[in-house]
What does this fold into?
Amino acid sequence: MFFAKNKWAGYFFRDFPHPSAVFFQKLRRRKSSNIQFQTLESMKCIIINGPNLNMLGQREPGVYGHESMEHVVCRLRESFATRGIEIEFFQSNHEGALIDRLQQAWAEGCDGVVLNAGAYTHTSIALHDAIRAIAPIPVVEVHISNVHQREAFRHTSLISAACRGVICGFGTDSYRLAIEALAQMPGE
Ligand code: DQA
It folds into this structure.
């Protein structure tokens, strides 16, 4: 009552809030900045491409399109950077090099892998084992073409069972969809 009537009271409490109010205000600010930090925290994922995918743009354009992989990666890096998603890229024509890169991704603490193993998809138990070995890092199997509409030997994947999910048949957009899936995947 006294303070309500006192013209200095409003001034005093506005400029010198009670210490407990300051404490709770700081706590609230810290909490909200943590939330902001979490959503903007960078996520590191890697696209690993297998044999012949370095020929994208030139290789069977009727099946794989005209866009080069450099262009695809550039486009993806640009559009995901604003969401704090960092995209590494690796391509090799050699099975062992793909396995080494998967293991390296694990050692680096990578958050997710997008794997287009090319023809090794249909033949490689070693890649299957490597994907299992780097668990719990989620690996999304990707194919540019819809392998199920193609030759019978492409209908079998030896890596699908080890992967978190499979995206195929959306052209080079399959890579974007896979990263989107990784970004929305709840952590282990
Ligand atoms: C591919 C499909 C595979 O069957 C093929 O061997 C490739 C590319 C795709 O992206 O559609 O090299 O993985």
